[in-house]
Amino acid sequence: MANAVDLRRGVAIMYQGAIHVVTEYQHVTPGNWRAYVQVTIRNIKNGNSFQARFRSTENVEVVTLESHTLQYLYRDSHGFNFMNSEDFSNVTLSPAVVGDTAKFLKEGEEIEGLFHGAEPIELSLPASVVLKVVTTPPGFKGDSVTNLQKPATLENGLEINVPLFIKEGDLVRVDTRTGAYMGREQARD
User: Fold this and answer.
1) Do 79 and 116 fall into the same domain?
2) Which of 68, 130, 175, 178 has its CA 20 to 30 A from that of 2?
3) Are the beta carbons of 7 and 20 closer than 8 angstroms?
4) Are residues 27 and 71 part of one domain?
5) Whether the Cβ atoms of residue 52 and residue 37 lie closer than 8 Å to each other
6) In the 3-class helix/strand/coil scheme, how is 22-77 assigned residue by residue?
7) What is the model's pTM?
8) Residues 100 and 54 in one domain
9) Does one domain contain both 39 and 26?
10) Residue 3 to residues 6, 36, 58, 75, 76, Cα–Cα distance (Å)
């Protein structure tokens, strides 16, 4: 248990029987009223965000989350299979836990996973990922003058819009927050 004034952004708490993460925090002391803490919290299971208010003296149950480095292996009928890079155990996560992260997963890549005990809570992707363009229509000479874009399918099945000069086999950097093209990468040998 911790006092409500000890809450900060990123702290996980138990609220109404579910784990929530504090995304915004504000300590309010209105004139002649009692001080309170106004927080915006996000439910880990369903992703819903809402505001909650606690008295400054109120105790809140803080939940300890463990971070583990996971390597994505493959997807099968049971879910997404990862290997814990610390103890080499296999972890299968349901599509509900993986959520929108699935469209940026690439076999062999490592990402951070948050766990409450043995229960997986969520995955944290890096800000961007580098993926290979598998199919895209060819661009024509002279098309690079304007800011036109064309569709491209990446190695993990994700479809994004890329500039006309991008061709099949190119490596592109994709923003994991928006799913937008960020730039072309040099091939690594």
Assistant:
1) yes
2) 68
3) no
4) no
5) no
6) EEEEEEECCCCCCCEEEEEEEECCCCCEEEEEEECCCEEEECCCEEEEEEEEEEEC
7) 0.68
8) no
9) yes
10) 5, 11, 6, 42, 44
